[in-house]
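Let us work through a complete example step by step.
Step 1: write down the sequence.
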Amino acid sequence: MHDAELISSPQRKELNMIFTFEHMDLDGGKWTPKLLDLRTLKNIFTTWQKGLYGKGWNSLYWNNHDQPRIVSRWGNDTAPYRDLSAKMLATCLHFLCGTPYIYQGEEIGNKN
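Step 2: predict the structure and record it as tokens.
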């Protein structure tokens, strides 16, 4: 955390933001899937939100080209829940402090 604060501190003028990856493998990733531990996810986000608040800047994202789409991964991508799941996941991410990154198709709730 300390390095992230230093690197993304506006006063130091090094980087504008950092990318964290702790949340990417909570469910084992795409190769060894396991149930998501929601408390651990919340703890990770809380740690970064509180740790960088007023000190640095974080990126916000659910998935990328190396991960399954979030609505299929941690939501429910079957009818009628895909839209609700996608909206819930987007709301959770976009109400955090940081810059959100939307992976191709995520804005319309694309599934795997």
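Step 3: interpret the result. Strands lie at 59-60, 99-100.
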